[in-house]
Amino acid sequence: MYRPNYLKISLSLLLNLLLCGLPSVAFTQTIAKPQPSSKPNNNKQQSGSVQVKVPTKSLPGRRENGSTRRGGCLFGDQPLLVLLLPSTNLGLTTAAYPQFFWYTPDNTAQTMLFSLYKVDEKLRPQTLVYQTNFKPSSKAAIANLTLPNNDQVKPLTINQTYQWSVSIVCDIQDPSPRSVISVHGWVQRVAINKSVANKLKRLSLRERLSVYAEQGLWFDLLSTVAELRACNPSDTKISNIWTSLLQQIELGYLAKQPLGQQCSRR
After folding, report:
1. Smaller CB count within 10 Å for the chain: N or C?
2. 20, 12 Cβ separation under 8 angstroms
3. Please, are residues 104 and 113 in contact by the beta-carbon 8 Å criterion?
4. What pTM was computed for the model?
5. Are 97 and 187 in contact (CB under 8 A)?
6. Are 186 and 90 spatial neighbours (Cβ–Cβ below 8 Å)?
7. Are 77 and 40 in contact (CB under 8 A)?
8. What is the pLDDT of residues 72-90, one digit of tens each?
9. Which residues are paired to 142 by β-bridges?
10. How far apart, in whole angstroms, are the C-alpha atoms of residue 231 and residue 65?
11. Which residues lie closer than 8 Å to 187 by C-beta, 6 or more apart?
């Protein structure tokens, strides 16, 4: 008999074991200063794209994982579970309750588990901030989850690193590594100076994109483009920006996948 609470506890314990098995890494500086592009982007305005500056600091992670073992439940053209993160595995945000995106392929999974952990100075999971399990769509799509803004979930702390993960469970009767496929990466909330913050308040969503890109705010940028795309599905410039962003982080092969984002302005 399916018992959600028991399943969540079992999966949480399994995830802890998997994450704690990762090597510890000394971590004294999270944000590296974005490096300016060596080549000018003369056709930036023509293409409608934005060039995002992400931190050059890499953190150990696994943003892509596939169902290669026998009995796996991921299939289709891209049989990979993928986090929409830069290849450095780290994304920055100004949001206290950011929005997370990942790609789920065609699958026969019975449940998924999303987890967010506060980590210590060696990047070891320390405190569970939020966790939930849910039934994934059986069809390939880019899914998303916004960290709930309520009394049960604390806002992200500025300059604190957090590990987030998505796990897909092929068989709830067998919550073991052979049945669970997991990906994980990192998010850090940062503060921006007052002049930039005030500028953002005066700009429309579309106008904010270049500011987010210049500041290297990956989560803010991606969630804003996703919102614009959901509200303006026929806008080719927004579609091109979405494609360009994924190409810049070497995930261009996901650009045409369906987006599960819903327009919140309707």
Report:
1. N
2. no
3. no
4. 0.83
5. no
6. yes
7. no
8. 799 988 999 999 999 999 9
9. 103, 259
10. 31
11. 90, 91, 92, 93, 98, 100, 116, 156, 161, 162, 164, 219
pLDDT value for 71: 58
Residue type, 17: L
Check pLDDT > 50 for residue 127: yes
pLDDT at residue 186, as a whole number? 97
DSSP result, 144-180: EEEPP-STTSPPPPBT-EEEEEEEEES-TT--STTTE
- Token duo for residue 143: 């899914």
Mean pLDDT rounded to a whole number for the chain = 84
User: Residue 130 is encoded by which pair of tokens?
Assistant: 């939020």
Who contacts 252 (Cβ-Cβ below 8 Å, separation ≥6)? 243, 246
Query: Which among 94, 121, 66 has a CA at the least distance from the CA of 190?
Result: 94
Q: Please give the helix or strand (H or E) that residue 129 lies within, else none.
A: strand 125-134
Structure tokens at 104: 């789920």
Strand partners, 185: 164
Phi-psi region of 22 (alpha: psi -120 to 50; beta: other; left: phi over 0): beta
List the Cα angle 159/163/166 in 5-degree steps: 145
Q: How far apart are CA 112 and CA 137, in angstroms?
A: 10
Distance (Å, rounded) from C-alpha 4 to C-alpha 10?
A: 10
Taking residues 205-210, what's their average pLDDT? 96
| 89-119 pLDDT tens trace | 999 999 999 999 999 999 999 999 999 999 9
Question: CA 218 from chain center: how many Å?
Answer: 9
pLDDT of residue 125: 85
Going along the chain from its start, the domains and CATH numbers come out as 4-26+52-191 (2.60.40.10)
Overall average pLDDT of the 119-127 stretch:
88
SS3 state of residue 73: coil
